[in-house]
Amino acid sequence: MVDKTNSFTIADINKQLFTGYQSQLINKGYIGYPLWIRLRVSLPITQQLAIRILPTYLDNIEVYQHINHQWLVNKVGDRHNYEAFDYPVTAFAIKVDPRLNQSDIYIKLTTTSTSLISTEIINEKELLESESARDLILSAYLAMILMTSIWSLFMLFRFREKTIFFFVLMILVEFLFVLFIEGLGGHYLLPGSALINDKVTSLSVLFSVLFGLLFHREFIQQEIKNKLFVQGITLFIIWDCILIILYILGYQQLALKYNVLIVIIVGILLVAVPIDYFLRKEKTYTLSVAVIYFIVGPALTFGLMPFYGLRNASIWSLYANLGNGFLSTILLLKLVYDRNLSIEAKLNRLSLEHEKEKWAHNQQKQLMSILVHEIKTPLSVLKLAVDRHLKHSEVEGYANRAINNIDELINRIVECDKLDSDSITLHFTKININQLITELIAATNKFDRFVFTQESAIVISSDLSLLKLIFNNLLENALKYSQVDSPIKVSSRIKDQRYYFSVTNDVGIAGIPDVDFVFKKYYRNTKASRVPGTGLGLYLVHSLVNLLNGEIEFSHKNNKVAFEVWIPI
């Protein structure tokens, strides 16, 4: 009987008519009112009997027995301390007093959870034996979850992958959920802390749903790659977070009720995964994933319907959480295991490719070292011969330019090789920046083409050799690709607490480089074929600026191109 007035006393209830039930299980869903149950025993009582009540997450249960012409009450539930109960068992159990004056025993249930309650009268021996067996089965189930969580932690430590991380969280919360929802936590861990037991039980229910949704969202996002599914689960995650906040604010039954509704709806929606699989032309996930979601989804929905009062319940409904948890854990473990194998195979391939690349790079490095050594020596001899035998001749300039181009190519290849092998070590010193730029401009032998705008006495702390390479490459680039005899503007100053350097020149015969590729290795404009170059200069500049934690930008406007560099001071 449901007391919708919330005012019935035991005297009022003793006068009421009750609807007869053949089942030991009564299911009223989330009613929000006290539920009264009448049990009838045969008198006189010839053996020691006990009333066993399940499930163990029910909040407050009052059992009324008429003894010596007055009503005596026993209270159990997860809001009462286990150490005060009549029997040291996990289920709520109360002794049937052999001095009963009447055959009717009344039970009043008040709970924020679903009003799904099982009541039975059995003898003490059966109670103790069945509860021992129940605890043993639950402990075995918890051991399985614990082993799964340990295994998944090893996977997480190895792969550092988000999907596995959420799986670990889901399994750990599942362990806590089963421990307290089935009464083991309250009985063995918190026998004298009813308030904590009640809160932990309810919060474990809410958080088990939240972390389950987070896992499925991440898995679907990574494997199934369906944006609609991901957005849908994201909405349920937000919904569940709101429910957790509502629970904390005191709206406990509302939060727990709609938490179960989330699982029922999500279970239905998960069936869309196998439908999506068969409708897709290009499969991004395996058939086993579709089959597993086809099983897990309906199992969640069907198993939780009795708790919401949507279908009739049986005694097995009390263990729907365990059944769904076991099924989901095994099947989801299969998903994560398959994903783990896929990641492992991918890592093995990457490792093999990395070893091949490393070997090829070492071979290239050795070859380059040999070539540089073999070319540098004859190049020096050639330079000496040009200076001695072709001095003041018509071909002297051509010969020197050819030698300088080869020398520049070798130097840039060597510097790029250092960058690629991460072998450049920074050495910071105080640098008179304007003096350095003036010397580099003078070294070009084209001093008259440069318009150098500078702030006086700029001193920064940086790597001298890297700055020389950066500035020299930008100056040479401007000389090489600008209009013949056109002015090249160079600016040097402190700007926004950083050192600022820019080179601006008119566009030459090579045209304007592509903004998206100008700093790419080996990139050269198609019109630049008539100008000697390697395609390494600006790549080298960009890499060295980044190495100094600076920034470089390329821009063009009104037939002029500009390179701007910012370097920390």
Account of the 3D structure:
Helices cover 52% and strands 17% of the residues. The protein is an alpha+beta fold. Strand 4 and strand 5 form a beta hairpin. Helix 5 runs parallel beside helix 7, helix 8 (272-279) packs antiparallel against helix 9 and helix 13 (464-481) runs antiparallel to helix 14. The longest helix has 70 residues, at 320-389. The protein is elongated and about 135 Å long. The mean pLDDT is 84.
Strand content: 15-25%
Largest sheet: 5 strands, mixed
> How are the strands of the biggest sheet laid out side by side?
10-12-13-15-14
Q: What is the straight-line distance between the termini?
A: 81 Å
Order of helices and strands: HEEEEEEEEHHHHHHHHHHEHEEHEEHEE
**Oligomeric nature of the chains:** single chain
* Percent helix: 40-55%
- Count every beta strand, where a strand is a DSSP E run of 2 or more residues: 15
Uncertain segments are: none
> What structural class should be given to the helix and strand makeup?
alpha+beta
Global morphology: elongated
Please state the average pLDDT score: 84
